[in-house]
Amino acid sequence: MSEQFLKDPDATLDYVIDWSGSYLLSGEQITASSWLILPQGASNDLAVDNIPLPVSGVATVFITGGIAGKIYQLTNRITTDQGRTDERSITIRVEEK
Fold this sequence. Notes:
Elements: E1 3-7, E2 12-18, E3 30-38, E4 46-50, E5 58-65, E6 71-80, E7 85-94
């Protein structure tokens, strides 16, 4: 089950997935991080604003927009310097605040 967050449609907020404690091996680094918004086509209303480079095993994304009343799944896919690939998701529910 993914973690759920509440977002106002006018807000630009950062969301993080911390891979350091439960996934990355000692000394392992994230070499690639991408984010996908579901449902497909939803990126027309909820959008990735910025993806900073992962730091200390934490992948961050800035999200903007969204339509009030809709629920989105945001999935982070990483690759590490050990050649491992995995993904984790969070849920964003958009409501006027």
